[in-house]
Amino acid sequence: MAAEIFNHYKIVSLIAKLTITYRKTMTSEFKFIPLQFHWVAINPKPIGVVYFIGGAFFGTFPNLFYRYLLKQVFERGYTIIAIPYRFTFRHWNVSIEMVKDLIGLRKAIYEEAKFLGYEDNLDLYLEDPTAGNPNYFWMGHSLGCKYISLLEVLSDVENTELEQVLSGCVGKNQAEDIQKSLNNTDIHTVSLKNQPSLLLAPVIAGIDSAIPIAALAKLVQSLGLDVQPNVQETRCLISNSNLFRLLEIIAFAKDLQAKDTVAWFIKELSQQLLKPVVPLANRTHLAPLGWRNGDQELADNVIKSIQELRTQLISCYPQSQEKEELLMKMISEH
Questions:
Q1: 38, 99, 146, 161: which has the fewest Cβ within 10 Å?
Q2: Please, what is the average pLDDT of the chain?
Q3: CATH fold of 2-332
């Protein structure tokens, strides 16, 4: 037991030294570039990649509205891939297509990094994100968290039949649509296995999330239409999933929009969450927003959570610790 505790603190210390050393050597300017319909900030000395999906409207332009927060994460050594939020009724289709797009995007980032003259740790962009290396993370805010959750659910299809994964939570027509979206797709490529998730004020909502105009949303609801999957179906899928074991949630004390979803997550996934959810005081749902200025305490909490998730993943794959040590040595030598 003592040896396990010692090893845990060794990993934590290693990650802390890695990020501190990185900040001392980081000289490149934080800048988003458009790349294959995504916004990417390529780190010159990357220790990992963070995918980010924001909420409705603000998430449509994540490079602007979440700039401050994403910059803080970038400065800790991460390449940022900001995925624009897409308004749609069919959340499954968007989730699946979104991950398919990332395969080519990572190759494009690799080529762009070489073009920019970057040399350190470029193989990061060509590796399999599911391999168990502590290099790929997902972060969402608000409704963007739903897309991440659906991908987490689908990740179980690698080991289980789709019908069993869906667990009777969705109807036959929706199940057939999911199967069509997955046709001719290597399930491995849409998996979030070994990629920890950090959810900021997660919201699982209905038709109002797809239609930003409230009056129009109510009209559509009155016709019996809703997003797929709806709130009840999404909660059913998450509750029956075997995954959601590399997950942290950050909530805000004065957040009315995410209040119900956060309470549900805490109730249903209390055993899977890496640590208890303690809402940050005096903050509303839009706390992560900021362009030139932002919430530094929140940014510090985000970075701390990523480090904790990284530590947890390394503890599951001890061979990753040696790679982490080599990476720290590489950065300190430049």
A1: 161
A2: 86
A3: Rossmann fold (3.40.50)
